[in-house]
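Moderator note: this is an archived Q&A kept for reference. The question asked for a predicted structure of one protein chain; the sequence and the answer are reproduced below.
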Amino acid sequence: MISLVRWSNCIEPVDEIELEEDIDPQTTEGARVLRLRTELVNSIKENEPITELKIDLEVTVTVSRYPSGVEGLVTYGNTVVKASYGVGKTMLGLGVSIEAASGPDWNVVYFNSELDENELNARIGKYARSMIGGFDFVNNAKFLSTKTGVTIAKIVERCVSAVHPTRNMLVVIDSINSIAEDISLKTGRPDLVELSTLFNWATNVRKNTGGEISFLIVSEMNANGGVKGLKGAYSADVIVSIRDADTNDVVEIDIEKSRSDKKGSLGLYTKDWFNGRFVK
């Protein structure tokens, strides 16, 4: 049985999060861990709203890709997955998480607010058993279940503790809407404010780390079929839409936005419930 962690009602401010615990910042790996932890914390705070770009013509950009497990789907940077209820957002989120953690480059932190722990374990097991290598991902992934009373500070703290000295980190939020609602019940602020805060934090972290920390954000569709919370649509590197087709358990997967790859429909996929994945 894969260990799941449940936590709530934590209100520690981000300033009290320990950044240098268990590392030696004088080493190369320790310095990297400290840098990434610092960006996770600082990106949630109010910073200078306008900064001047220092021109450097030698700078190049490397896209931080992570495997999706879905034929034809390229995921990288901050990817937003949007769909209506029950279409398969969590199926995609879990698949990306397990695929990324199975390789040599990524650690994964998965925040689950949608499924109970037995269902989450069952879905993870189905996907893992269908893979070559099976459960190799377990040491590189943490699956955390949230509930009412969770705070943004605690989410940041959990991410800080998961930073790896050599691997990049993929943070999966499933779903950002329900987690924002749970945070709202704790803070008393409107859930749209908490939704915007989460999107802003994810955007800032991804920018400030150059994608060494990236996010896969599962989002409900708004009434117009867009991403709930405009910041998510504007700032995402990739927006993936999943829509029901006319046939039972068949969906269309569409790339609505991509900063470095083609947009458009990827075609029809069947939801393979036995193996917990999409099959073209």
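Archived answer notes: The helical segments are 28-42, 89-102, 117-129, 152-161, 176-187, 191-209, 230-235.
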